[in-house]
Amino acid sequence: MATASRFLLRKLPRFLKLSPTLLRSNGVRVSSNLIQDSIEPLDSFWRIGSRIRHDSLTTRSFSSQGPASVDYSSVLQEEEFHKLANFTINHLLEKIEIDGFDIDYGNEVLTLKLGSLGTYVLNKQTPNRQIWMSSPVSGPSRFDWDRDANAWIYRRTEAKLHKLLEEELENLCGEPIQLS
């Protein structure tokens, strides 16, 4: 398979009617472990954004500008992160009172077992300075501390940890939940 992959990598630019120089200058990478022995005609490919995709082959172009810069002034120092995260998780442990369900806290992981309704898991991710939540409703979420909002925020949806958890638990359990 390795020999076939190397052969195909040399022949691919000609097959796609792209010059090797163009491929190198645009940083195109080919997933050789996905290449099969035969390739269908070019019209079986379809374009998705900057990708050319096929069942057995994917190429993707990357910008040569490098990753976006990080604003390190907004990153919490480790000690500050632990204080905020520990306070938040312990606060949730004290506030969540739902009859008939198990709430466990151990090894800095908060687990809320709701039986057939599912299980919530909240834990600290120190290297990322995040609190991660696994929810039976919304799936995995990664919350960053927002100094302006003074809250843990999920950047994709702008949801606040306490508010999201309140809404989901109220909907699942049918009881009003106040976590703030």
From TrEMBL:
- InterPro entries this protein is in? Frataxin, Frataxin/CyaY, Frataxin/CyaY_sf, Frataxin_CS
- The kind of enzyme this is, by top-level EC class, is oxidoreductase
Q: Which GO terms describe its biological process?
A: intracellular iron ion homeostasis; iron ion transport; iron-sulfur cluster assembly
- EC number(s) of the enzyme? 1.16.3.1
Query: Recorded GO terms, molecular function?
Result: ferric iron binding; ferroxidase activity
Q: Where in the cell is it found?
A: Mitochondrion
Alphabetized PROSITE patterns for the sequence: FRATAXIN_1, FRATAXIN_2
Major location, coarse class?
A: mitochondrion
Question: Which Gene Ontology terms of cellular component type are present?
Answer: mitochondrion
Q: What is this protein called?
A: ferroxidase
Q: Which organism is it from?
A: Arabidopsis thaliana (Mouse-ear cress)
